[in-house]
Every structure is written in structure tokens, then in C-alpha cells.
Fold Small ribosomal subunit protein uS15c.
Amino acid sequence: MKKSSFISVIPQEEKGKNRGSVEFQVFNFTKKIRRLTSHLELHRKDYLSQRGLRKILGKRQRLLAYLSKKNRVRYKELIGQLNIRELKSR
């Protein structure tokens, strides 16, 4: 597996303070998603990793939906920082 560097968007001092915040959790899920995606590009038939990726994607989607309902400004800032697409509205 090729090692790639993921850029840390959240400053180090903020990481230590509030690890339970929605932004921090979404940031960690995004890091895991990017790592698993690069792994699955090499190992296409790794079905257990595919399942894990789908579970993490669902968790991140639920957290982003929660943040979107509670605080739209923080939500917009977060998806802008992490360079991810906006949730589809139902």
C-alpha cells in the first residue's frame, strides 16, 4: 500500500481540547475514508474493508446531517475545509 500524507485541517491545539465535537469526529471519519479508499484501489476484492468503508460513510453522513440541522454555518465551513460534497436534500 502506498503511504500518502493527509493534511490536517484542524489545528493541533484544537484536537486536544474537544475530541467529542462533531467537526472532529467528521474529520477523523474523513481521514479513515480516504485511507480506505486508497487501500481499496489496490485491493479491489477486499470485501470486509468495503463493508467497513460503507459503515464509516453512513456514520459521517448522519453526523453531517445533524450538524446541518443544528448549525448551518459550521456545516458549510466544515465541508469547505474538508473538500467534501454537500448532502443531498430529501
In short: The chain has a mean pLDDT of 86.
